[in-house]
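Re: beginner question about structure tokens

> Can someone show what the tokenized structure looks like for a real chain? I only ever see the sequence side.

Sure, here's an example I had lying around. Input first:
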Amino acid sequence: MTVPAPRARRRPSALGRLLPLLLVGALLAPVGLLFTSTWRQTTHDRDLAARERLGVQYLSALAPVADALVEAQSAAVNGRPASSEALNRAIEEAAAVDARIGVELLSQERWAGVRAKLEALGDRSPADPESAFTAYSEVTDLLLDLHSKVRESSGLVRDPAADSFFLQDSAGQELPEAVVAASRLADLATLVSRRPAAEQPRGLLELTALRVSALAPANDLVDNLRSAVDGSESTDLGANVLTPLDNYQRSVEALAAYSAPANGTGVVDPGKVGAAGINTHRAARQLQPVILAELDALLVERIDELDRDRWLTIGAGVIAGLLLSWLAALLITAGRRARHRAAMAATHADSPDTPSQGDPWQPAAGDPRGLQPAGAVGDLEATQWGAFDAAR
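And the corresponding structure tokens:
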């Protein structure tokens, strides 16, 4: 009976040895891509929020400059001696902020031009109200342009949240424009009342156009703040903003009423318009720091949430790395064990002392046989007795 030779076990190929590593790499690639994408997006959003906070700081420094500037304009138009202490102090504080963060916000060149104009105003005598009004108007236009530059370079104009977007638009654009326009409206009413009768019609047309320019940003400001309160999840925003907003809205309504021509005669009382302008300015001065504080609080809260997201991303990445490392170690260990078993089998197959793996029921050659098949026993007995019969 022919016994087949044992089949030698094949050694694992290079692809078989690299298969565990390829499997781990296939799992690691999407996990790493997801981790990198999440980390970059979270970091980008956090950097944007931090940059927006720099814009809020700069706008906070520009607010006193605008307040002191419109007060100096009113004093010059009305022939009153204006104290330059408040304006100079506001300029120095804004210059310090610009020196600290102006490079990052790309505002240093604009601020240098505004500061040069502001310092030149100190040498102007209030004896010429018309020229003073024109000079101050030019400086306030440059100051409003600086507000727009800061909002653009800091990313405030691209804020993704509805409440913070309305707040930045209110504090950085609508409110400064409304304050400047309301001050101009009150001062122009005073100037028009002093002009000759022949120039009164042209002055009233200027006053009407400036009235529209003053009321439009004020109304937009009110709408923006109410939209911010309605769309915000913050419970403090409405409680902090609505009261000064109501005061400001009432002052704007009074300004609109007093600046309208009385009884269709085209006559405007400059005293009432001036008083309404002062009340509007005071209400705006109380409202602006509240808006900026609430905007900064929302940005701080957003940065904290993004920091938590970054830590969660790091934790998820660490856990995924540990799991993949454990899987890789498991696969590598299993591969090593398989190769070890293959090597041991090959060593036993090649050794000359190793018995062949035949029929397990057949004893090896030369071993005494216990039980024999019937055919084999009959042949042996015939051979033995045949020799005995021949001798007999």
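Each token stands for a local structural state, so reading them left to right follows the chain. Residues 61-308 form one domain.
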